[in-house]
């Protein structure tokens, strides 16, 4: 009788342990956009890591959609287990392509980001609705010896244009370290977008001067966003000024 009771107790303990065991959390891959770099995700990364999520902030080359998506695709392909793919600005177009062909990508999160349909470019979408002022804030293009030009935001205009709700001193550092994007990348047409097959979430601010809020809302609705968070007054770098709101939405997508 004692042996039977002990066996039942042991089986119960094992079953109980299995019942409460938690699956590994998905890896969050963060892809920055033009005029930013991976450090723009620092506040979000801090929250996600604290909550137990593995995180990779990929260095988006910003050369062309095909090139950049291939690089991010390679990063995703190196990760064992499920992935939540997150893009900011132009990075949204990159993740829309990079997710294709990867069964481990379970969801997409667009942070003040473009979600083009096939045949569209970010330039097309940026001009679809009034309100964007990026063209007037650009510095003189930098000619590349390989052909084409690199685009930067004029450092004197960076704070107001790109990061109006970020402290001026922080915005000045961001302006100095901004990553340029080729003009060609902004006019590259998209192929079949992954958001047509994968669930997506969107977050953006009403104070975005790079991508008009109307354009962001249009793309979120078109993609069938599971939840769209609109942050009143937030600039184009909503992940810098409101990392808590962005991290919360990413964690929702990770479930």
UniProtKB/TrEMBL annotation:
GO molecular function: hydrolase activity
Keywords on record: Hydrolase, Signal
Domain AB hydrolase-1: 28-248
Top-rank taxon: Bacteria
Signal peptide (from-to): 1-21
The name this protein goes by in its record: Alpha/beta hydrolase
